[in-house]
Amino acid sequence: MSHATGRQYLKPGVLPHMWCPGCGIGTMLGAMLRAFEELQYSRTETVVVTGIGCTGKLDDYLLTNALHTTHGRALAYATGVKAFKPSLNVVVVMGDGDSVTIGGNHFIHAARRNIDVTAIVLNNYNFGMTGGQASGTTPVGSFTSTTAWGNPERQFDVCALADTAGANYVARTTPHHAWEMQGIIKRALVKKGFSVVEVVSPCPAHFGRYNDMKETPDMLRWLRGQAVPVETYRTLSVAERQTCFPIGCLVDRSEPDFNARYESLRTRATSN
Amino acid sequence: MGKLGNERGAVAGRNFIPSQLLQGNLAIAEGAIYAGARFYAGYPITPSSEIADEFAARMPKSGGVFIQMEDEIGSIAAVVGASLAGAKALTATSGPGFSLMQENLGLAVMGEVPCVVVDVQRSGPSTGLATKPAQADIMQVRWGRHGDQSVIAVCPATVHECFTLTVQAFNFAERFRVPVIVAADEIVGHMRENVVLPAAGEIEVLDRRSPSCAPAEYLPFKPGGDGVAPLAAYGSDYVTHVTSSMHGLDGYSNNDPANAAWRVRQLHEKIERHRDEIVLTGFYGEEDAEVLIVTLGAPTRAARAAALEAGAAGVKVGVLQLQTVWPFPDKEIAAAGRNARMVVVPEMNYGGQVAGEVRKIFGPSVDIRNVNKYNGTIITPQDIIDAVAGVGGAKG
Prior knowledge:
Chain A is of the alpha/beta class. Chain A has helices at 25-38, 74-84, 96-100, 104-113, 158-165, 178-190, 204-210, 216-226, 230-233, 238-241, 258-270; strands at residues 46-50, 65-68, 89-95, 118-123, 126-127, 133-134, 169-173, 195-200, 227-229, 245-252. Chain A has a single domain, classed as 3-Layer(aba) Sandwich (Rossmann fold), CATH 3.40.50.970.
């Protein structure tokens, strides 16, 4: 049996894609489309919602329904789609700027509301499209075009934020773990409620260049060196955890999603 | 809504049409539901909150959805998302929230997404005289978004019009694939009047046109003969690609200058070529008026009272009410003022936002007088009479 390629969802004639050499977005796109295929998603029943920035350009490659939105607001648009038509597969693809910088409010409220959409967050620690500025995930002390002397601010942990705010499913992966990424995205898509997959990705063109990682493999090795399976991570001391991050499924719970709760209040309202 | 609804009642063997004492904001909610609205996303703000309250209570019973979002930015975004999933959708807010909505309202213009936004205008700038009435958002309604864009806006002056113009707002949104703004004001929104609401079927309700071509042929941004493209809902047999970026007929990004120029023109022309159908006005008083009052929203009521009083004193006064404010009713104003030596424009703002547009219509021989009030109080008939008598319009 041949395995999924995801090509049925890919717009013909769009390759090679626009992203820089070494960027993780293409790997993530491939993993997502293969997951669609394995789940037999139909193009008409699937809506991919994107924000703005490098990751936000992803809808240009798709043959599914799509909604390319404004910066940071993709989750709010997706909430309207899913709340009105729960039968649709709604997938939101955002960068770290969209998800937890300009759009942080929508992110925590989508998690609190437990809206049944899957948010794939491509975190490359900076704003790539605008030339490599600091975002809400830029590590403290690291360099970007707007933190020329080192970032004075601390970074968000995307997964911890999603966990605390109430997401049903939270996982992290990297483009180095592309095969696992496909499985993680698939599980996130299947999961009812708000699911978050953080893809920690290289950005050699900007973040790497500013932080002494000259070549693409340098940055990939830097990420791989920090990525520790969550089972191992949990055995580490607090001090050891400072130099790494866990990958794999971090949160998996089954709280009722927004539509399920809304359906039950509909029943109450109509029986009154 | 009152328990009577639109049902016909019977007393002593006689059928009668029940009236009800209804608040303007609730009439807006009734009008929206009459028009088929089944999705509301919003964030609380006075003086619009009664509309949200009504939808929160009603939607679960009618198969619709009410969702309270985290802010007004998210509210209009959810409305656009639901509309693309096939809903007739709306949100309601006031000045501060309306300001927050502008960027995503621009996406609704660019993506040609039908939706309705109710702005129950209140005093500003910023928090202003929370939450006293104003009409200082008239230009924000038209120009609040960046870039070249065009929208439609209506402006009710009575509780009954809150209902009927909201139905029209949905009809315009659906027919022309454009956001429509109901520019109400705190006075009209919070006023209660005895009304008989239209029965089902009494006002025509329009739905967006769906494509009829084969799914593979569908181009979501290819205009039909009327300049408006059919719109398929997410989850139908058609795939719909919508983007905030400049796009081609297929809805995918397209940076070609010729396409961009065509697209910007099309966004304007689909409204301009139907402006006679969109522009709604009311006229009261003398047809060949020597004094024309051009008015909208709550000051319409003062204008009508002033016209009666001036008429009794022998001055021929006409009142033209702009029920549609955008596209601007320039032809209608010119026609109503063809014999006028004076045009008076009362509005609850400092700058004379409507008066400025009226000035573009008339030559220097016509005396245009602003009557502006911006202290959170209502424009009175006397304020207008003073302006006509040349003792100066109300200030402050």
